[in-house]
User: Fold these one by one.
Assistant:
Number 1:
Amino acid sequence: DFIAVVVNAAGDAFAVGFIGSGGIEHQYVARISGATGAVMWEATDVPGVTTENFGADIVLDAAGNANRLG
């Protein structure tokens, strides 16, 4: 599930949220191309994490880099 999405000047979307695994929710962050809709990169928790962890928001800094909050 996605919690927040932000779009950069190039039209690429950055999404943060969570995925379920073994009854525990883990963070999920992805960059989606605005031109093609393809996932450019994605990241989740490190394997073996046993506590719930997910982002509450995502923002872009002045350079256009994504920062997960929460």
Note: The radius of gyration is 12 Å.
Number 2:
Amino acid sequence: SGGGLVAESDEELAVHLIRILKDDNFRETLRRNIAKFVTEKVSWRVVAGKYVEVYKKYAWRPSRYSRYFG
């Protein structure tokens, strides 16, 4: 997504944090990418829509149970 950084050591984490603090353009790009990722992938609206899709696909089948419940 371009909105995250990975640090495999304390030193790498420090380098990333310093860059975020010092580089306004990098920080703004990181912020925009994170906001885009959250809006498109993990917002409540998106997650709820995915739950509805799964429910419709696997759980909601009225004809499947009609023989048992009339």
Note: Helices lie at 10-22, 24-42, 44-59, 62-69.
Number 3:
Amino acid sequence: PRPPAGDPQVIERALRLAATALTKPRKTLANAVRPGLDTDGVVAAGIDPQRRPGTLGLDEWCRLADVAAT
């Protein structure tokens, strides 16, 4: 799969967020992305906060990074 086209800064933020969350693979996404993003932020990105970090694709990490930046 090709990475999503978009702002390189969003992709960079997404990769940093993913790298942090993926160090806690057994936690739910809502817990793995704290304190940078809360459960409401995960939901605002259109992602189930009960998912595990390893199940997200790059496009989903980009959505999370976009929400975290606002």
Note: The chain has a mean pLDDT of 89.
Number 4:
Amino acid sequence: DFGVYMIRIHCKKASHLIVQSRYQALTVKERARLRLHLGFCHYCRAFKRQMNAIEQSVEQWKDGSESPKK
């Protein structure tokens, strides 16, 4: 379908949006494109999970609830 093709993005763009979403709100169009991409891309879903895990680890470390691993 031509409409879906117009909103599809590549992994490079998806990873950029995943990182960007940590610092600022995505537009409705960006969120829709990212959600569509994550629906079929195992690699970008894994990247998003890794980013979540890193963010959680940093927050725990900043709060002093866990020391960094050496």
Note: Helices lie at 2-7, 11-20, 28-40, 42-63.
